[in-house]
Amino acid sequence: MANYNSQQVYRGAVTWPKATAIAGPMLIFYDRLFVAGPNIFYTPTTRLDDFQWRVGVNFWDDNDPPIHFGDHEEDYRNKRSSSFELQTQFQYNFGWRKRFNAGAFLAREVKENIGLHSEVFLGAPLLPFTSVQARLSFSEKKMNKYLYGPTGVSGAGYSSFSFNGIFPFVPWNGMIMVNYTRFIVLKGENKTADYIRSDDINDVVSVRLFWNAL
C-alpha cells in the first residue's frame, strides 16, 4: 500500500501542513483480521452484511511523518504525547444496493487516560464508484484538550464532509482510492485552543494505491 496526503489532519487538527507520503504492507487474514503497522482490527462480519462491526487497537502520534515534502519542521501542532486507543465501529448498510450507510465510531484512549471520543456518520452513493460521507464528533473534555489544546472543551469536536472515489481497474490486481475531505473544528474554545490557533477549516486530498501480493 502507498498513501499520499496533501497535508495531515487528525480529527480536525492539522498536525503537518505540508504534503506527506507513506508506503508499507497491509496484512489481511481471511478478510477478518487487518494489520497495518502497529494498528490491528478484527471484524466478524463481511462486506456483504447489512450490519457491519469491527474492533481493534490504534496507536497514533503527531511527530513529523517519515516521508514529507517541503521545509516545514515540528512546531506548536506537535506537542501531544502518543496515544493508544481501543476502538470499535458499527455500520448499517441500507437502501439502493445497500450503498447508503449510517453508523457510529467509539474510541477509548488507555495510554494517557484522556477519555472517550465518538463519531456518528452518514454516507450515500453518487456516480458509479463514488460516494460522499458526513461525520460529527463528540468527546470528553480531556480528549478535546488533547486534540485541540489546553483550553479545549467537551462536546462537539469537529465535523467533516468527504468525497470518495474508487478506481478498481489498475494493473497487477491493484486499486486506487481518491478522497477529498473538508474538516471543521467546532466550538470557539476548541478553535482558538493552542494547537489550532483559529486554523479551524482545512481540506485534505489523499490518494491510496493498493496491490494484492497473493
In short:
This protein is mainly beta and 214 residues long.
Structure description:
It is a single chain. The chain has 214 residues and is mainly beta. The protein has two helices and 16 strands. A 14-stranded antiparallel beta sheet has the order 5-6-7-8-10-11-12-13-14-15-16-1-4-9. It is globular and about 45 Å long. The model has no long low-confidence stretch (mean pLDDT 95).
Topology:
Layout: E1 2-5, E2 8-10, E3 13-16, E4 20-23, E5 27-29, E6 33-36, E7 39-42, E8 51-60, E9 67-68, E10 83-94, E11 100-109, E12 115-125, E13 130-139, H1 141-148, E14 155-170, E15 174-185, H2 188-191, E16 201-211
Antiparallel strand pairs: 1-4, 1-16, 2-3, 4-9, 5-6, 6-7, 7-8, 8-10, 10-11, 11-12, 12-13, 13-14, 14-15, 15-16
Q: Any key phrases for this structure?
A:
single chain, 214 residues, mainly beta, Porin, 2 helices, 6% helix
Shape: globular
State the CATH class: Mainly Beta
Our measurement of the CA-to-CA distance between the termini, rounded to an integer number of angstroms, reads 13 Å
Question: Mean pLDDT across all residues, rounded?
Answer: 95
CATH architecture: Beta Barrel
> Which fold name corresponds to the CATH topology?
Porin
What is the number of helices? 2
What's the helix-strand series? EEEEEEEEEEEEEHEEHE
Strand share of the residues? over 45%
Radius of gyration: 17 Å
Could you give the order of strands across the largest sheet?
A: 5-6-7-8-10-11-12-13-14-15-16-1-4-9
Count of structural domains: 1
Question: How many β-strand stretches?
Answer: 16
What structural class do you assign from the helix and strand content?
A: mainly beta
Major β-sheet, in short?
A: 14 strands, antiparallel
